[in-house]
Amino acid sequence: MNGIQQQWTELHSYVARRDIVFYYVGYFSQTIIAAMAEAVKLRAEHTGAVGQTRRKLFSSFIEMAQNIVHYSADLHEKEGKVTEPSMRHGAVFITQTDEHYYLHCANPVDADMAEKLRVKLEHLRSLTNEEIKSAYKEMLRAETPVDSKGAGLGFLTVARDASAPLEFEFSAPQADGAQTFYLRATI
């Protein structure tokens, strides 16, 4: 073996050892999310996930991908213009270990967004499962928050579906203040 074939074999071997169910890094749009969602649905069935786990995995995946589309600081531009509909850069992957699935996502955010995310996620981590479910129901009845590009349910949905508190980190700020936001949910 040489070159491309060897690299492919090494990558395939790595993926198999890490129990990677799904992996994507690149630009996200609503069309791309729809295609990925179908692949995630099929892979969840293939890995033997039971109905409720598949539902949680699917809804959390959609929310994480939507957050990338709405909040990633890296917009796709062509000839100096933002493409419409907008496409934003990020990564999402799903791994499986024993009886748990782990959803990971990462995307660049500006300093203001990093602080908003930190506050929101630290608050979520302080809530019990019952408090998360109650907050979710309240948010369903409330008006959409001014600074939200969705219904404001994204992180609540992921936290509600997770079997452990959400984990998150931010990279060190770059010269322009941008950071990479990392989120992990256990299903």
UniProtKB/TrEMBL annotation:
Q: Note the Pfam families from the entry.
A: DUF6272
Q: Which InterPro entries match?
A: DUF6272
Q: What is this protein called?
A: Uncharacterized protein
Organism, as annotated: Herbaspirillum seropedicae (strain SmR1)
